[in-house]
Amino acid sequence: VKSYEQTYLDLGQKNFGTYTCPECQMSYVQGTLADDTLHTNFHRLTLEGIKYHSYQDEITLETIPEVNGRIVLLVYNETRFFEKLKIKNTIEWVNLELGAVEMTEEKLKTSKAYFYVANKYDIVGFALAVRIEKAYKVIDSLSENAQDESRKVSKLQIGNDNDGSGIFCSTKPLRAACGISRLWVKRDHRRKKIATKLLDNVRKNFIYGCELKPIEVAFSQPSGDGKAFATQYTET
Ligand code: ACO
Ligand code: ZN
Question: Which of 7, 76, 154, 233 is the most exposed place for a label (fewest CB within 10 A)?
Answer without folding.
Answer: 7
